[in-house]
Amino acid sequence: VQIVESGGGLVQPGGSLRLTCSASGTFFSVNDMGWYRQTPGKERELVAYITGGGRRRFGDSVKGRVTISRTNANYTIYLQLNNLVPEDTAVYYCHANIDFEVDYDDYWGQGTQVTVAS
């Protein structure tokens, strides 16, 4: 299983961010997919996730500023985060719960740095 992330980088305060994540490999399907973020010394926190059926959940710190969508055909999710503030600076990780039909397992991407600064 491969989790491939794209997007991130340096963004100005007030700007927007778009992150993309795809899951590929040999498996039956993908259940939840989502984005989490982490800063040094803090626990990883939820940004947003979306289930295979389209149900969404958002982290408290980004509610009202974030959207997440998904294409099941290629198990890809798209995160849009608007009105960025310096506190959004973090390493963003993609997560996927993979269904192997006889078992489930969690996979993570390697992370992509997002820095919000002028």
Mean pLDDT: 96
Low-pLDDT segments, ≥5 res: none
Helix and strand content put the structural class at mainly beta
Q: Please give the share of residues in helix.
A: under 10%
**Overall spatial form:** elongated
What oligomeric state best describes the polypeptide chains here?
A: single chain
Q: Can you summarize the main beta sheet?
A: 7 strands, mixed
Counting H and I runs of at least 4 residues, what is the number of helices? 0
Determine the N-to-C terminus distance.
37 Å
Kindly estimate the percentage of residues that lie in beta strands according to DSSP. over 45%
H/E element string? Answer: EEEEEEEEEEE
Computed CA radius of gyration, to the nearest angstrom:
14 Å
Give me the count of strands: 11
List the helices and strands and how they pair.
Layout: E1 2-7, E2 9-11, E3 17-24, E4 29-38, E5 45-50, E6 56-58, E7 66-71, E8 76-81, E9 90-99, E10 104-108, E11 112-116
